[in-house]
UniProtKB/TrEMBL annotation:
Pfam families: PDH_C (PF20463), PDH_N (PF02153). This is Prephenate dehydrogenase. It comes from the Bacteria. SUPFAM superfamilies: 6-phosphogluconate dehydrogenase C-terminal domain-like, NAD(P)-binding Rossmann-fold domains. One of its GO terms (biological process) is tyrosine biosynthetic process. PANTHER family: PREPHENATE DEHYDROGENASE, PREPHENATE DEHYDROGENASE [NADP(+)]. It comes from Corynebacterium lowii. The keyword Transport does not apply. Residues 14-305 form the Prephenate/arogenate dehydrogenase domain. The lineage of its organism: Bacteria, Bacillati, Actinomycetota, Actinomycetes, Mycobacteriales.
Length: 342
């Protein structure tokens, strides 16, 4: 198969309404607008909404007006606000946009799915998480192309928990089409599998924050001598602390498991360094092997926001709603594969 060919249609069957136009929501708005798809948004900050409007985008600072419009048009709503606001937003969706299906871009899925189920909204919801971003935030940080070649998780728990309605299947398909429309790769995962996997990635934010603190505690000379590896390794420590806290604290169980594993490795290394013949051969050799495996799988692109190129991940073709399609999604999840929808 030609790896540059995209099987998944990028034609979304409904308008897209994005709630929150920060880095992720704003970049999604820009990409869909550039693709010519009907898209509009809401931003809590009137100044942010005005700035986006002046740039030619359809953005309002009135949530209720935006939801009423979305309900009239049967839009696909994307929740791109901070996770602590989700409860209030979900209640507003139930009250003012009951016709609309919705997805989200939160980095934690179990907590979101719990809130969705508590409100009986699971038949209207498909979870999402684009693995893309920068240390910057807000509308001014958003830009076209942020998601190109990036992994974008799409959840499918409802297909396993119940017999989904045709409306939910079409909603799931539209989310997959939206992912394809911005050049990202749809990676299916159930919420618990997603959170466990992301917990291992999220631990880097804590460990790299520790690296940044340790370097800073060394004083001016240590910072003056810090080279590119320190700069690159501490980049994510520049992310707004509130965003890092939301990502880590709402996925604490998975994060603790990964942290315990990391601490065991570090304590073993410390014991080896304090022995009669100091060495860290086991840690460095194992780390090198892990990096080589990652690079072999990734085929990294220097100019990509994601270290994975399109041809690197296994590919499974899925027909939404077809026989045993949920089993195909589980298989794709186990392989870390991207899917193409037909």
């Amino acid at each position: 198969m030609c790896h540059t060919c995209q099987v998944t249609s990028t034609i979304i069957s409904r308008p897209v309404c994005i709630l929150g136009i920060g880095l992720i929501g704003g970049s999604l708005l820009r990409d869909l607008h550039a693709a010519g798809h009907p898209v509009y948004g809401y931003n809590r900050s009137p100044s942010g909404a005005r700035t986006a409007t002046k740039e030619g985008f359809d953005v309002s600072a009135n949530l209720l007006d935006t939801l009423h419009r979305a309900n009239e048009e049967g839009a696909l709503i994307v929740l791109a606000t901070p996770l602590p606001s989700f409860g209030e937003i979900l209640d507003a969706l139930n009250a003012h946009a009951p016709r609309c299906g919705f997805t989200d871009v939160a980095s934690v899925k179990s907590r979101v799915y719990e809130m969705v189920r508590d409100r009986g909204m699971e038949s209207r919801y498909v979870g999402g998480h684009p693995m893309a971003g920068t240390a910057q935030s807000g509308w001014k940080a958003s830009h076209e192309g942020l998601f190109r070649s990036a992994a974008w998780v799409i959840t499918f728990d409802h297909a396993c928990d119940a017999t989904p309605t045709p409306e939910w299947v079409e909603l799931w398909t539209d989310v997959a089409r939206m992912i394809a429309a911005v050049g990202a790769e749809a990676i299916p995962a159930r919420v618990s599998s997603h959170d466990a996997a992301v917990g291992r990635a999220t631990i880097s934010r804590g460990s790299l924050a520790t690296l940044a603190i340790t370097g800073d505690n060394g004083g001016a000379l240590a910072l003056s001598l810090a080279a590119g590896s320190f700069r690159d390794g501490t980049r994510v420590a520049g992310t707004a602390p509130s965003l890092v806290r939301a990502m880590c604290e709402t996925n604490s169980e998975a994060l603790v498991d990964a942290l315990d594993e990391a601490l065991t490795l570090l304590n073993d290394a410390r014991a080896q360094l304090t022995g009669a013949h100091p060495h860290i051969q086991e840690l460095t050799d194992a780390g090198h092997r892990s990096r080589v495996r990652f690079e072999a799988r990734s085929g990294a692109l220097k100019d990509s926001v994601s270290p994975i190129r399109i041809s690197a991940r296994p590919v499974l073709r899925v027909h939404p709603g077809g026989p045993d399609w949920e089993r195909q999604l589980i298989q794709a999840e186990s392989l870390g594969a991207r899917i193409e929808v037909f």
